[in-house]
């Protein structure tokens, strides 16, 4: 029951954050993140793995927010930013969200001890470097991008799959 209520809270939170700066960050483990990806049916879901300490990640985020603003009202689109910062740095992540005015939903993946297990489950070629952006459509991976992604690449990948 506790897991179900947490799951419902995650779904509710994800619908609230699209298009506005969030004030709290949910800590999730791999299984919770995987469920969220699978439950975003009939959408193109852009999942970006990043960290506040990753210069290329921080560099690409303004373009990601421009694209998020462009598509935020499309019911077939959603962006999810998955922070790989440490759980103890949660407040730092919240302050970063506010400072950078991140309008996509942000979750903090608190599952570092098992990263060698979950990283290859996202993509076998992924060695753990960030930024990484994975596109899903109806819960199925359709595109994997390791490294920085330009605004045009991001927008074109979304448009091609909407």
UniProtKB/TrEMBL annotation:
What InterPro entries does its record include?
AhpC/TSA, Thioredoxin-like_sf, Thioredoxin_CS, Thioredoxin_domain, Thioredoxin_ResA/DsbE_sf
Domain Thioredoxin residues, every copy: 3-162
Q: Which domain of life is it from?
A: Bacteria
Key words, A-Z: Redox-active center
Which SUPFAM superfamilies does the record associate with it? Thioredoxin-like
Name of the protein in its database record: TlpA family protein disulfide reductase
